[in-house]
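Morning - zinc ion inputs below, output right after.
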Amino acid sequence: MFTSHYGGVGSLESMRAASEAGTKASRATNETMQIRRELNRLLMINEALWEIIRDREGLKDDDLIRKIDEIDLRDGVLNGRRAKQTPQDCSNCGRTLPKRQPVCIYCGTDAENRDPFGT
Ligand SMILES: [Zn+2]
């Protein structure tokens, strides 16, 4: 037993639990920062690719905005999110293809016409 900084009484177990929670929180913060760095880099790469294409093809930023809205509206709702993909069935065995698998895991048939941006 000990007296905490807050004037209460705690046990060794509660101290250990608090320390573990602090470690998990710190790890989550580090992961979040890493994801932000990666996201920032991906945004920069996206911007670079767009500017190369725009300048080579004589496009305008409005063309990009219109295309983004067109993709956004494929599910009928302008909400800043892509439409959810509906699962496809294997053309050979008819079973549902798992997401992001290039071949059917049941029979090995190539998963044709998969959406490369499928989520
Ligand atoms: Zn199959």
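Note: The chain has a mean pLDDT of 88.

O.
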